[in-house]
Amino acid sequence: MGKTLGRLRRLPEIECFFPKTVQEALSLLKKYNGKARVFAGGTDLLPKMKRREVVPQYLIALNGIRDLNFIKYEKGKGLRIGAATTLSEILESPIIQKYFPILTETVAQMASMQVRNVGTMAGNLCNAVPSADTAPPLIVLGAQLKLVGIQKQRTVPIEGFFKGPDRTILGPMEIVSEIQISSPTGKGSGAYMKHTLRREMDLSIAGVAAYLFRDPKDNTCKDIKIAMGAVGPVPMRAKKAEAILRGKRLSDDLIESAAMIASEESKPIDDIRSSAEYRREMVKVLTKQAIKQCLEKA
Ligand SMILES: Cc1cc2nc3c(=O)[nH]c(=O)nc-3n(C[C@H](O)[C@H](O)[C@H](O)COP(=O)(O)OP(=O)(O)OC[C@H]3O[C@@H](n4cnc5c(N)ncnc54)[C@H](O)[C@@H]3O)c2cc1C
User: Fold this and answer.
1) Ligand 1 contact, 127 CB (< 6 A)
2) Mutate to test the pocket of ligand 1, among 22, 29, 35, 39 (most ligand atoms within 8 A of CB)
3) Handedness of CA 60, 62, 65, 67 (dihedral sign)
4) What are the pLDDT digits (tens) for 217-267?
5) How far is CA 33 from CA 46, 58, 156, 163, 283, in A?
6) How far is residue 15's CA from residue 45's CA, in Å, rounded to a whole number?
7) What is the whole-number distance in angstroms between the Cα of residue 107 and the centre of ligand 1?
8) Which residue is closest in CA terms to ligand 1's atom 21?
9) Tens of pLDDT along 179-198?
């Protein structure tokens, strides 16, 4: 079995900065080289600090930076979500409900209203736990992340962002400034299915997202992406399962085979929330459910 959670302890006094611009935040990161940590909602970082898993000497709040708080959509171009935008703002966004309902459905399954009111999608990704709920849907949407540092900025596909549990490609002086999703070419439908031990307020034991482009004439799969969370060191695509669906008529048997293959592709571990074997079974179930939901919505 994996590690158990450590005891929560009172935090020591710590200096916290509230910059008003991204440049100011980056300058603080540089000034306190290695000793400072950025945060947005703090819903992941503060419990980690209370368990002494991380012990920064300085904190830099990103949630007061207005340039990081936005949801913008341009037809033909796509969606941009600023890193300080809260999960509640994402949940309530009519733009996201209309053009990317898979994200609305995902966020609705996360945490509680209180946590969503301060927690962010960027924080969920940067925390880099394999169970991060927003990762699989963003992967199937082909999202990109804009990373900014003092000297340069870069845009990277979300799939390459995660390096392992708690590890990303972010440099020590870089932050995520926004999440970008291009407008889909054609009409697709998506779904995210998550399995938890408790009904609410719980992290995923396994999560599967699918995004399907279907030919309505003969019910063939023109294209599909499937991504899995909490069943490997990083959120990951089920590429072999996708491959057997592409170009084929979407029968129950074919969906069953794809779900089996996705389960074989997953790389779960035993930990305090579940055994690897149970997780593999759940990938099968959730993959089937996700594809069938995409079909119902198509
Ligand atoms: C009761 C409870 C229930 C929860 N339920 C769920 C759930 O159902 N599903 C789920 O996936 N998660 C859940 N979480 C975890 C957490 O709420 C989410 O991961 C949330 O989205 C984190 O966002 P945040 O802004 O609070 O991150 P923070 O805690 O502020 O930051 C998390 C990490 O990311 C870094 N970071 C934050 N923003 C940036 C940035 N812009 N650039 C670079 N680094 C950055 C921080 O340094 C830190 O290491 C839950 C947490 C709690 C306390």
Assistant:
1) yes
2) 39
3) positive
4) 999 999 999 999 999 999 999 999 999 999 999 999 999 999 999 999 999
5) 20, 10, 24, 22, 41
6) 15
7) 12
8) 124
9) 999 998 888 999 999 999 88
